[in-house]
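Session log. Operator J.P. requested a structure for one protein chain; no other inputs attached. Running the standard single-chain path with token output.
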Amino acid sequence: MSYAIVRVGGKQYRVEEGDSIVVDRLSAGEGDKLELEPLLFADGDKAIFDGADLGKVKVQATVTGHERGKKIHGLKFKPKRGYKRRFGHRSDLTRLEISSIKAQARRSGGAKKQQEGEDGS
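Structure written below.
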């Protein structure tokens, strides 16, 4: 089972392939494909969190829709002064579907030379 920790909008999320996550509103349109920034990749007992190796990890997601969050109600009140203020807020959210998490394997120099020899170069 492989998973990744990704950064989206200044927050971190643990994702696996096929997961659906809700993040703060992104400017991408519905159906667009995004590449998310990985901070950690783990596959079984192997973990990658070094900057150079993380460059080879690709986490791709698809925007499945834009939503609005639950209404949050607030109230300010000061007794004996006749001061009351009510306010409300709904967050704009984006739902992402994680389509793939891939770590590109490193090819050794010997494998590259063998491939060139087979091509006749």
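Operator note: The longest helix spans residues 109-119.
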